Amino acid sequence: MNALGRRDFLKSVSFIGVAAGFKVTTSYDPVAKFELNVSEVEYRRTKAGRPLMARIYQPAGAGPFPTVLDLHGGAWNAKDRKAEEPMDRAIAASGVLVVAVDMTLAPEAPYPACVQDANYAVRWLKTKARSWNGDPSKIGIYGSSSGGHVAELLAMRPHDARYNAIPLTGAPNIDASIAYIAMRSPISNTFARFQNAEKLKRDAMVKNNTTFFVPWDTIHESNPQEILDRHEAIQKVPFLIMQGGLDDNVLPAVQEKFAESYKAAGGVVQYRLFEGCEHEWVATPGPQTDRAREMVKAFIAQHVNA
Length: 306
What we know:
This protein has helices spanning 3-20, 85-92, 113-128, 146-156, 190-199, 203-212, 218-221, 224-229, 252-264, 287-304; strands at residues 36-45, 51-59, 65-71, 97-101, 134-144, 180-184, 239-244, 269-274.
C-alpha cells in the first residue's frame, strides 16, 4: 500500500473508531514513504537573548505520527539543529514527526544549560506535537555524540530540579519523561572521553571539555557511566546505542561497558557495533548509513507500536 492509500485507510479507520466512541491511534510502518513539510519556529531564547530554533520535519498526512526530538552533537560547543538533517529527513519520511532543536553552546553557558534547554524542549514538544499532527504520548529522542550525552541525562533524571529549571508557561504540570532514546556515538562516559582526548593530544577536544564542565567536578556528576557506578536512583528508558568500530573519539570498549552497566542496573539497551565506521559515519551516504537509518526506524516501531 502506498503512502496515500495507507493514509486514506487510516483516516477511514479513525472515523469509524471515533463514531464508535473509542480512540484509534495510527500505527507506525517504518517502510512507509511520506512527503515532508519543513518549517522552523523559535522555541525559547538563551539568557543572552539568542533565539533557539526548532526545525520541524512534518510528514504530509493526518497522523497522528510518532514524535521524536533530535538533540545535535558538536562536543557541547558547536553545531545546531541542522547537524543531523539527513538522518532527520530519513526518519521523518517514514511517517515520524521529527523536531530538531538548537541548544545553548558551552561558550555561552556551561553545563547544565544545554540539558535545561533539552528538558524544556521535551515539555514544549509535548504541548506542540498535535499542532503538527504528532502524537505526544510517547516522545522519543534521537541524540548524536554530545547530544546523546544530554539525552542519557534526560532519560535517567527526568525530574531533576536542575534540568527542570526553565518553567513552561501555561503547562507547569507537564514533565520531561520520555519513552525511548536512539543514539549515535553518545558520550556515555564523559571523563573517559576527556582522558582519551588528552592521550591523543587533541587540544581542541580538551578545551571543549574544560569550557563545558564548569566547575570541573561536573564532568563526574554528569557522567552517565559514573551515575550507574554510584548506583544513583534513575529512570530506565530503553536505549539504542549505535557505535562505530573505528571511533577514536568515543571508544567502542568504553561504550560497550556503559551498555553492560545499564543492563546490570535493570535498563533495556540494544548495543550495535558498526564495523569499519568512525565517529560520524552517518554523515556520509553508504550501506552503513542506510543500516543505521533502518535500525533507528525499527527501534521507533518497536516502542510506539507496543
